[in-house]
């Protein structure tokens, strides 16, 4: 029989629950996240969307959150987009409600795990998943296993000091608004029309991302990096700049055994959360 899991992605502006069967999301429901909601109100929204995809056949629930997580206890700390969730025993609360195993992890780690079970990382032993969105998230897979670090803190490359700030100020969506006064999506649409300013924006972005990738290569020497998140759709417009940055990488022989790919998973945050159950 095909196993059924529920994956839940708690994002910056909404949360989404999906039923996953045989590596595909067969049903999903969405609720808005209001940063002014109480802890109880946000939990009610979470239970509401899970209820809509829950069946007796569901074997476990996986939840990805953009926060510091203790995956053993299931306690989530300081969720930035839900200020009321400063310390919440989310695993126990969800278990008490549904009486099935519950697994919780950081959302970037979920992305990496989703790629390992369902996406581009299946063929690799050591790889890194980079989520290019509001910030720069990173999940690390070593010897086919997710590396969490203490409280799922491993992989916070976006917080590394860089130029006049931190790395994700130059490799997240902040960069386009601060430097070009436009969103990444707007610039992407203009780049499709060969707009010179948009093309320059992504070229500059690629240079910064290339520096982050060089740091990853020095630290982990992965076989592959898979790019996900909304900005990864524009990879054709910053690929050359990334590769130019890698031209100064000290160990060029290593690059012969290294690839950069983009995720092609549909509903990857839900699949990644569901992969925690595996």
Automatic annotation (TrEMBL):
SUPFAM superfamilies (alphabetical): Actin-like ATPase domain
Family matches, as Gene3D superfamilies: 3.30.420.40
Protein name: ROK family protein
Family: Belongs to the ROK (NagC/XylR) family.
InterPro entries: ATPase_NBD (IPR043129), ROK (IPR000600)
Highest taxon of source: Bacteria
Taxonomic source organism: Flagellimonas hadalis
Lineage, uppermost ranks: Bacteria, Pseudomonadati, Bacteroidota, Flavobacteriia, Flavobacteriales
One Pfam family here: ROK
């Amino acid at each position: 029989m095909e196993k059924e899991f529920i994956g839940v992605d708690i994002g910056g502006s909404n949360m989404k629950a999906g039923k996953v069967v045989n590596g595909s999301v067969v049903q999903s429901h969405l609720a808005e996240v209001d940063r002014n909601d109480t802890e109880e109100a946000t939990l009610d929204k979470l239970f509401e969307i899970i209820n809509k995809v829950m069946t007796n056949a569901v074997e476990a629930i996986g939840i990805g959150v953009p926060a510091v997580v203790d995956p053993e206890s299931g306690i989530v700390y300081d969720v930035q987009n839900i200020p009321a969730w400063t310390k919440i025993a989310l695993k126990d609360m969800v278990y008490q409600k549904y009486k099935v195993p519950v697994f919780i992890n950081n959302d970037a780690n979920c992305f990496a795990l989703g790629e390992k079970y369902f996406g581009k990382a299946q063929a690799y032993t050591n790889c890194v998943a980079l989520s290019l969105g509001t910030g720069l998230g990173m999940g690390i897979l070593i010897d086919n296993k997710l590396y969490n670090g203490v409280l799922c803190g491993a992989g916070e490359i976006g917080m590394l000091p860089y130029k006049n700030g931190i790395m994700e100020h130059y490799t997240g969506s902040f960069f386009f608004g601060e430097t070009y006064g436009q969103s990444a999506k707007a610039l992407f649409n203009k780049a499709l029309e060969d707009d010179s300013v948009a093309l320059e924006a992504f070229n500059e972005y690629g240079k910064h991302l290339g520096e982050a990738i060089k740091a990853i290569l020095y630290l982990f020497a992965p076989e592959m990096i898979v790019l996900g998140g909304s900005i990864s759709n524009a990879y054709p417009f910053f690929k050359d700049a990334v590769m130019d940055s890698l031209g100064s990488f000290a160990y060029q022989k290593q690059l012969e055994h290294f690839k950069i790919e983009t995720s092609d998973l549909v509903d990857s945050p839900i699949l990644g959360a569901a992969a925690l159950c595996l």
